[in-house]
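Schema walkthrough. Field components (list of strings):
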Amino acid sequence: MKLAGLKSIENAHDESVWAAAWIPATETRPALLMTGSLDETVKLWKPDELTLERTNTGHCLGVVSVAAHPSGAIAASASLDSFVRVFDVDSNTSIANLEAPPSEVWQMQFDPKGTTLAVAGGGSASVQLWNTDTWKLIATLSIPRPEGPKPSDKNSSKKFVLSVAWSPDGRRVACGSMDGTISVFDVARAKFLHHLEGHFMPVRSLVYSPADPRVLFSASDDAHVHMYDAEGKTMVAALSGHASWVLSVDASPDGAAVATGSSDRTVRLWDLSMRAAVQTMSNHGDQVWGVTFRPPGGPGPRVGRLASVSDDKSISLYDYS
Amino acid sequence: MVALLALDWAQAQLDGDGFGFGWGNSSLLRSSNSVGNGNSEEEVRVALDQLPRDASDILDILKAEQAPLDLWLIIAREYFKLGKLDQFRQILEEGSSHEIDEYYADVRYERIAILNALGAYYSYLGKIETKQREKEEYFIQATKHYNKASRIDMHEPSTWVGKGQLLLAKGEVEQASAAFRIVLEGDRDNVSALLGQACVEYNRGHYSESLTLYKRALQVYPDCPGALDPENVEALVSLAILDLQTNEAAGIKKGMEKMQRAFEIYPYCAMALNYLANHFFFTGQHFLVEQLTETALAVTNHGPTKSHSYYNLARSYHSKGDYETASRYYWASVKEINKPSEFVFPYYGLGQVQLKLGEIKNALSNFEKVLEVYPDNCETLKVLGHIHVQLGQTEKAQEFLRKATKIDPRDAEAFLDLGELLISTDTVAALDALKTARSLLKKGGEEVPIEVLNNIAVIHFEREELELALQTFKEALGDGIWLTFLEGKAKTYEIDATSSLLQYKDMQIFHRLEEEGLSVGLSWNKVTTLFNLARLLEQLHNTETASTLYRLILFKYPDYIDAFLRLAAIAKARNNLQLSIELVNEALKVNDKCANALSMLGDLELKNDDWVKAKETFRAASEATDGKDSYATLSLVCILFIVHTALGSLKIFGVLPTLTFLGNWNYFAAIRNEKRNPKLEATHLEKAKELYTRVLVQHTANLYAANGAGVVLAEKGHFDVQEAASGSIFVQMPDVWINLAHVYFAQGNFALAVKMYQNCLRKFFYNTDSQILLYLARTHYEAEQWQDCKRTLLRAIHLSPSNYTLRFDAGVAMQKFSASTLQKTKRTVDEVRSTVDELENAVRLFSQLSAASNLHFHGFDEKKINTHVEYCKHLLEAAKVHREAAEREEQQNRQRLDLARQMALAEEARRKAEEQRKFQLERRKQEDELKRVRQQEEHFERVKEQWKSSTSASKRRDRSDIDDGEGGHSEKRRRKGGKRRKKEKSSRSRYETEEADMMDDHDEPEDEDANLNYREPGYQMNDQEDNVEENAQDVLAAAGLEDSDAEDDAFVDAKAAPSSAGRRRRAWSESDEDEIPERKTQSSLLQENSAELQDSDGEFRDDTNRQQENAAVDDED
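Field assembly_structure (string):
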């Protein structure tokens, strides 16, 4: 497997680019790359030339995460001011503004069927689930607070939820916290199942393997990517190689590889059969905040694409084969 | 090498004996005639064994009898044989006197023989004489005699042979060879010449040629003394030595046989004894060696021989390991030698033994003596190199080793030594040397020692050539289980590894591998290399494999503390404190006094906020090293200090792992003194500076101390010195960068400070340190770059989302930004609009924080946040008003423009109308004129008609003309009237609005509710909008008023008049100015000294604001 640089856009945003996600293709258009930045805008780009489709404004403070509905019709973007803006991809009309104080908003993800949006709720130590029809809050999955006397500053900030991921079968939601623990929830019963341990520093990104609903990848500030059996509560492997925080992880649609972006300014491709980094891209000049594989489907040739976004204001597109 | 040299020396030594032997031979040959006196009629019988004591008697007889000269010679020889050298000389000298020359003028040969005998005698004397002057004297004598002989007959071969011998004795080998060759050209079978030439060849080291010559001499003259006299010990010894020199097993054997025979014949020949001893030394029969050499010592007084014997003895003891005795005998041997050049081996041996005995200086001088004799001897050079290393004179050591490698570029060992020596000083050269050694070893088919490869790899590692290092480590380790891990093959077994918490302690993998039949072996000499490899992998961020290798080491050698500590360090880096502590405890189980482990444990406990335990641990660490481990000691001091001063949660430790805690202590004491007694502060600062300086004096390279000193100086206001102190030396330490940035900041050089912070972030922290971002934000804040400040804070929030302080700061920054925009006298609507947005964000942020504080997310005082929320809300209201005002202004501006345009249009129209009117007037005038003319004409016509006759048609036309003119006029008049009406109306409305605005203006300062206040003008503005089309003047007036209004408003805001706005502002200034420094204290103290800089700065600002604060408090009261 191999990554080959296709296109890079310098100064794609006026400020650091913090988030990226692919909007799946619809019948009328191909898949789009959506990026969010500190410059308070969300931009949509058309591959492979990365031509700018549209610039969405309407956020205050930096855009920290973006998520696309599996249908490709709607998408959500969230900023540091804790608002989630849900909008129609093609028209950019706002569909809903979500807010669930006192939760902040960090990573978001639509469930594979597209009925629910999961939002990592930061300091509330919980994940909010929003119904995508009514845009009403259906459930709040809270991490059980550790026993002990009065929760102090320390404890509470430890369970600060940063990242969230849906299992491909839609039955599980996993969320990662500042203290490095990963919590797995049963969605149907809205019930906390167990913790996955191994990290002791913030887990900023989580993704389930599309090939195996049990396998979960986590990216942490400890410079490691862990591969867990999320059901069996065991760690399958720890991938080391990054020199600094691992900020983002995504699994390839074929499930054979994962890509990571790190503070060490590199993007790495990991071969899961070898459990080792097979390629390191160092085209970015600053922290790589997001890596994302394009989902399969849509018109056009079925080739793998990986996009990465960085603090250096640039976005890059790679061919994955 | 030593042994070989010994033989060399032996040859050199033998030269003397070889020569003596040759000389002896030649003289014997010449005088081996039977005794007879043929020329005499009377026979005088002289019994050769009964020669008189006084040679004069014989001389008298010889002279009286006119005995033939050969008889003189015979008698002289007999005296010589008897050892009566004086008589011998007397006879010969008499025999070569002038009288004899004259008398026996014809007897040339005998005369020559006598002279030659004398020459040979003096040659011998010269040879054995040790004193230089006498020696030369003898040689001169000898030369004189030989020259005399030559004068008698130029071609006498025996003279040439004698000369040759003399030259040999003088050491002039080439000339000697020439002399012998002259003889051999005349008679190629001249035995003496052959023997001489053999001796020359021997001296030149051409042993085989020498041997052939000797053999030829034997062939020519089979009765050669050696063969002739099988009992001639010296000859036997010489031949034996010759045989030994062949260096072939058979030759040596033959030589030894001869030597043995010589020994059997005459057991007291020191030379033979020495050689036998030498032989037995090599065969290892030390007992014999000692006996033989002791005998040799007993029988000889000859210095060099004795020295040789002592040397043999010493060597024997040396090889047995009895260095004391060996040293004594070497010493004895050395004492027998006048010049080291004569026999250098004892010096070498002595040096070796002294090295063993630790007398390095003495050894040095001995080896230096050896080097004088053999300046190119590699062994000696290497040994000297080592000695200099031991004496710490690396430069000299390098010099010697370099020379050694130059002399023998194939000596891998020398390169190795050199490489090892250079490692600490010049890695590049070391690497070269080691690589050369490696390739030499490889070329020689030898296995490269693992240490060499390890060293090469380590150098690569240190030079950050990580790939090369990796390769070399792999080469060093060779085959083994580690390859499985390195290539990641073994990971497949790891799948069901269970508890991830214990991942760095897990040994199952090795058991499993063993079960699968793989050998999990690790030989002891590879452990270090494997450990290094693991370190390298860590550096390459391949932590997982590194940990596996560490565990492999521990699996095989569970006492390898360093591996435990590395594993603990990995766990610590990953923030897995529990595991890290466990691992350190494992290490402590192996050695509970290991200071490193204890220090690390202390650190971990601190990280875990376990202060009391940490204190104990550091104390233990300190005790473990008798207080020499400054880290532990000072950590302890620091803890005590912190515990005692109850600074609580200030986490100074992360940045204070230094020798300089004491200095810091004083520093903090100065800073932390609540009352800030200036005198006390000065004392503390002075003390701190002193301490830092002291550390600096002891360890010039201690950056921490320099840094600390810099901070103190900075605190005292000596910024320049700080820069100098930190300077460029310590660019590797982020703290220095940060402190420098702080200094720039304090100097007000914000641009540089920003640059400094940014560089530091990028260089050391991969831009991930939110703390430095916070400093950066603060710099922007002070530089009033609000947007940069906000962005930086947002970045920091993004990096540490759970740090609510950052959110609070972001809120404050936005609040400040808004306030400052509102204070500006000139601002655009966009600015005001963004201000409002910003305020809304700020309100939102503060409210969120307020809500969060209910959940105890962070340590903020809810009240304070609420104050902020309230204040921001207030500000927001005001800002909204401003926005509306600004928007209105903008609208008005637009309207003004519109109106101006309209007015311009109206003006144009009016001008056109005027023109039209003028034109019409003109035309009317003309028409009137015309009419008048016409009328006059008509009149005239009429008159004429009246005079003559008039027509009705012309009259009709005339009337219509007049009507036309009147109609145009009236129309115009109507229009004018309309205009006047309009004017009246507009002026009325203008007064109305003016009034309203005035009221508004007056009301505003008094009215608490600005919003309510402003609804009116807004309302009115709508009115105006209706009116606006009607009258431009109105709008202009209103706009003018609006301007003044805005100014008033801003004024009110800025002047802090006793109004709500004023109070608001003060509330803001209080909370803001108060909050930022507080934030500083909270956050910045994480960063050691730098924090203090900020803190003090903050406090300074506090002072300046105090008055205002007081005022605010009063106001609130």
